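Key result, reporting period 2: structure in, sequence out.
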């Protein structure tokens, strides 16, 4: 855990890393939301581009049919989704995603107060992608005007709907969390912060990444 947590005027706890070099406030929901919108737009474009070769694999499976079609579909989607996991893992390990840079917020590992390790970044990225896929599939199932779903699609929906609900609840947890962290931040040992103030210069905002 971070070595020091103090209350701010807004009643949210401020973070201080073990070396005491700075304090920081939890990033508010609106900043995190806008940053996520930017990130998912960028990642979504990369995903769509990667779907072109993945679509060839899916088309092959459709031609063959049967169990092979399902296996190749899952394989193609997994390969395409790996692009999203790779993007978020690389960005989080640097301390910011593109969206976070635009909104001037940072992600830190609770234990060190520095950039997350690759493993923490990977774990958080996998969670984000799983939740995004669940939300898309839940939306498609719940708001579809068609009831003509295959058994496989019904199985996906049966899993996606509760997973999407859990994902949303975990994100909204930050509204009542004392330190402004989501359940998924806590699970992966991360915190998303803003207004990083150096201990040696309390009247200035500063970032250990030089931004």
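The corresponding designed sequence is given below.
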């Amino acid at each position: 855990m971070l070595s020091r947590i103090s209350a701010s005027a807004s009643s949210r706890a401020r973070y201080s890393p073990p070396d005491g070099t700075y304090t920081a406030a939890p990033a508010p929901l609106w900043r995190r939301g806008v940053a996520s919108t930017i990130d998912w737009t960028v990642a979504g474009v990369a995903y769509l581009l990667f779907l072109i070769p993945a679509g060839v694999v899916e088309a092959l499976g459709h031609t063959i049919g049967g169990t092979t079609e399902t296996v190749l579909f899952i394989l193609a989607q997994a390969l395409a989704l790996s692009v999203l996991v790779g993007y978020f893992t690389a960005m989080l390990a640097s301390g910011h995603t593109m969206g976070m840079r635009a909104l001037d917020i940072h992600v830190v590992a609770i234990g060190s107060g520095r950039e997350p390790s690759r493993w923490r970044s990977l774990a958080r990225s996998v969670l984000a992608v799983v939740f995004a896929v669940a939300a898309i599939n839940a939306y498609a199932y719940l708001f579809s005007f068609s009831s003509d779903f295959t058994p496989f699609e019904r199985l996906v929906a049966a899993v996606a709907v509760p997973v999407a609900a859990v994902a949303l609840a975990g994100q909204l947890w930050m509204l009542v969390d004392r330190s402004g962290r989501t359940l998924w931040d806590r699970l992966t040992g991360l915190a998303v912060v803003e207004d990083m103030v150096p201990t040696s210069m309390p009247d200035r905002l500063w970032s250990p990444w030089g931004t």
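The chain has one domain: 26-198. The two ends are 25 Å apart (CA to CA). This case is discussed further under Risks and Mitigation.
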